[in-house]
Structure formats: structure tokens, C-alpha cells
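re the bet — no i am not wrong, look at it urself. input seq straight from the record:
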Amino acid sequence: MTAYPLLGSPLKLGPKTARNRIWMTAHATLLVKDHLFTKEHIAYYVARARGGAAVITMEAMASHPTTQPYKGKAFAFDPRMVPEYAKLADAVHEHGTLLLSQPWHRGRQTNSVTNGLPVWAPSAIPCGVYREMPHVMTGKDIGEIIEGYRLSARHSREGGLDGVEVHGMSHGYLLNQFLSPATNARTDAYGGSLEDRMRIVMEILQACREELGPDMIMGMRLNSDDGYEGGLRAEDWADLAAEFEATGLIDYISLSHGTYINRMLIYPTSPEQHGYQLDATATVKARLGIPVVGVGRIVEPGEAEGYLADGKCDFIGMARALVSDARWGAKALGGEARKIRPCVGANWCMSTIFAQSAIGCIHNPSAGRELELDEDALIPAATPRRVAVVGGGPGGLRAAWTLARRGHAVTLFEARNRLGGQVRWWAKAESRTELVGIVDWLEARLAEENVEIRLNTEASEGDLADFDAVVVATGSTGLRHGWTMLRPEKWCGPPLPGADLGHVMAYTELLETDPEIGKRAVLFDTMGGRQGAVTAEYLAQRGAEVLFVTQLGQPSPDLGASRDWGKVHGALRRAGVTFHVDRELTEITQTSVTMRDLYTGETETLTDIDQVVMVQGSSANDALFHALGDRIETHLIGDAMSARRVNDAIKEGELAARAI
């Protein structure tokens, strides 16, 4: 028996049957090379199939050469895909999982940089993200797109897949652009009335079903709400979905939200209400008889079971939750739901793709690296050793967990009275509370192993003398000297005038100690990452009027990678934070801060200042590592090596633990 009987129950899906209701929805991986799959790609999908997903929709694949946003994109129209599909299908079918392809076209939501081809769209209306003027598709172009989808379906059948999910109607992509009067201004047979706007989709569905025949699954990915004025809303999509079902060509519909006008409706960062899309999904589902896949930050099995019980959807679609834990399904249905590694909504998976790197997760180092870092295939230590881990942040916790699982005798030293390190500090900001799941999960896993934990203990050389190996995970300390990277000659010298005053502090000191906060605070951020945004939020949360100063052209520009800079900027503005960009500090007094415009040289003084908080990066706490020298095998990880990100600390903790 399972605690989640609906989640674990089979359901007929056209001519086939899914063994449970867990569906891995499509998402980019950048594991593609030369527009084909790789052994790493196969391992990624196999891990999720073995981990309990009943259906996997592979990542969106180009149906035509004009949709190539980056090099790492598979070409579904390419006949070379047939043997690739066969390899994937054979590997995934071993675990009883159904495997679907997802041909799609981005339409205006791309540019011509990668492939040198013009952007195609139904009308010459540019995308707000890419801002490139599209070529208005001709009748011949439309015919090419339909043929591309037909070829994609043919190759899926020849490659032994279970079916095809026709994509492009959701997230503002090409077929969404044809369907919506906001983006379709055509006056020919493919624009105007609803019937004409639907024409290209109907022709694609007919072409795909002709290729697939009656023995394969065919579904569609639709929106249930475009999420902007002028776009299609839930009732509009319900009408469209009913029309598509009435053709008798499709076996299910997978629903989502949003376009590139508001991408936080597609893959929102924390905070976002779990299941936020499902009311609109239920509106569409009420008009349908075929199964519906629902999505929208569904991360916990109890939530999933509730949505199924309420009839809001028939399948639970997840992407980021299964990036975070490939064994989500097996754990949920096997009585180990408490062991599921939670998706914390950090969107590090999106940031890795933005950086043109293979998919990753902020706290699952195995994601995208299953062949080398499968955490369920650890090699036991040939000779168990006594190993000390110094530092109980995320890197130290991960190292201690893996070391113990490999059979080593582990002692964890933590100078503070609680494990978790800086992650617990960041979680003090209301928008980042879910982050605590990273260290809570690791702490819970550590409690299952035989690890000696010494809190309130700052390990010295003497404390470590009897160990065979040491992992140094002592973190970092925030800088507060006041200079930007534009002044490298001053970086290691005397601080900016006034930066050593008592009311000036580094962001790490602020978040750790929770000091009294005055009425008016200057935050000076030279890094441009999430640290500045979170610190500004925390100061405002504590009641301060926050003046956010940066030498960069916008606050926290690095949030472009996680796609939530607009969401964060809006939240900060609503909290009363004001932004001062292209500025460096020149002087701090007890009650004022003077800043200079980088490009005009003009200065401005901010008065009545009670606090100044510096976000300038951190200095590695590596003194213990250097003191140990070569007398003992020592591994330096995380911020103690170089102040970076949570995922770096966790990955390096894992690698160090495997090396000992």
C-alpha cells in the first residue's frame, strides 16, 4: 500500500497505459551534441525512468532549421534521430516508462544569431525578450513547418518511441502565436477567425497522426493562460482544447502557463504558490474527456495526491522537481517521501542552461552527471579511514554524508551552534525561505548515518592531528572595504574613507547577527548577483528604507540567468527600495554616503544614513588549510577555496568525499 494511491495508480493513455501518474515534462538539458543525443542524455532520462516516472516527454526538439536558439538543440526533423530514439527507447523501456518526443518551433521567441536564418512568425511582431523583427511566414513556409512536424512524427515512430507531444501552442511559441489574435494579424487562410487561426495546428495534428497511426500516443502541449492582457486566457484555451479533442486525433493534453512576456509564469523562482497553475488547468479540464497533465511548482507528493483527488488534473507533470531528485517517484510511492530532495525554486537549472552548460541543480550534483556522480552507486572505501570535516555548511554536510555512506568514520566540526552555514542566513529573507530545504535535507540524511557532530567547536590543528584526512569547508567572510572591481589597485589596500566606521558592515555580518536596523540604509553591491537583492529585501523586511547603489548598469543583472530579474526588481520596488546605478562610493561618514556617477563624474550625497551594508564578495577562510600544510591529506572545498555558489560547495564536497 502507498500513502498516495491516486499518484501510484495506472491510467490509460490512448493505446497504451502509464504505470502511475508521474510525468516528467519536457525541459532543456544542453546534453545534446551535433543536434543528437549523447550517452549522458540517455543516462539522464534513464535515471528518472528508474526513479519512478511513468511517462517522460523528452526536451523540445526543433521541427525546422529556423528554430535553433543555441547549438545544443536536437533536430527532430533530422533522420539521424531515428537510431538515437532507438537507443533511448530501449534504455527507458527497461523500467516500464513511456517515452515521447516533443517537436516544436519557437517562432518569434528566438533570434538568428546561432543559425543565421531569419526568425519566422505569423506576423511581423517582435518578441520582447529577443527584439528581432520576424519574417512574415508565407504559405510555402507554413507548408515547410507542417512537413517538419510530419517528419518528426515519422522519425519518432521509426525510432520506437511511444508517442509524440506536439508542442508550440504553449509558452508563446510559434503555434501559440498563430492561435492568439495578439500575435496573429494575418488576413489569409491562417489568420482572422478562430477557425483560420487554428488551421495550421489542425493540419499539423492530421499530418502527425497519419505518420503515427493508431498504435502510438499523440498529445499536445497547450497553455491554460497566456498571462497577459490581449493574450488567450483560461476560457479561451478551454474552447481551443475542446476543438482539438473533437478531432479525435489526440490522446491527452498537457497544460502550462505563460509566454516570454512573463516567463515567471512558466518556471517561477521561489516564492511561488505550489500548484499555482492548477485552477486554470481545472477550467480547461472541465471541457475535456481525455487525460490532462497539470504542472506548476508541484514538489511534494501530498500536494500531488491532493490535486489528483480534487480532479484538477489526471497526471502530475514535473520538471524541476525531478531534476532535483531523479528518484522522486520511487521515494514517494515506496514509503520514503521524507527522503525526497526538495526543489527549492532557485532556478539554478535555468542558470546553467543560460551559461551554455549542461543542466545542473543547486543541490543535486548528480543532475546531468549521472554517469560519474550517481549518488546511488557509490564505491565503498577500500580502506575505511578516520576523516574530519571542518565546517557544517552545505559543502561540509554533503562531504560528511558521502564519506559516511562510503564507510569512513566521520567527525564533523562546526564552530556555530547549528548546522547549515550561510544557507540559513539567506533563508531569513521571505522570498528565500525554501532554500533552507537544501541544508535541512542534508542534515536529515546525515542523521541516518553514524557521524559524530561537534557543534560550537572551532577545530584547531591539534584537534585534527589524529585524523587520516581532513575536508576543510570553513566558508568565507564578507568584505567591506568599499572599493569596486574598477579600482583593483585599491582592493587590497586601505579601505574607502569611512568604510571602517561602526555602522558599516558586510552582508554576511548583517545576515548572521541580525543587528538593530535603522530607518535608512545604503546597500552597496558590486557583485551583481542574488546576494544584493536578498540583502536589500532583508533590510526592507526589517523596516529600513533601502537605497540600493551599484556600479553596474542595473541591480543584480546576474538574475537574467535565472529569468527572475523582473520579478525581483518589482518586489524590491514594492518594498520601497530605490536603485542608484552606474555609481561608486567615494566617502562614508557617520550619517551620509557620497557616490560618483561613473560616466559623468558628478557626485551626490545621500544623507540621514543609519546603516551601510557592503556586498562585495567574500574572503576565503582558508587559514586552517594552510596551517595543516602537507602533514595530512587535506581537501579544500566551497567558499573556503573561493567564495562562489551553493552548488559549487556541494559538488566539491561530493568530489572530495569520493576521492578519499
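see?? The chain is about 30% helix and 20% strand. told u. also The radius of gyration is 27 Å. so pay up
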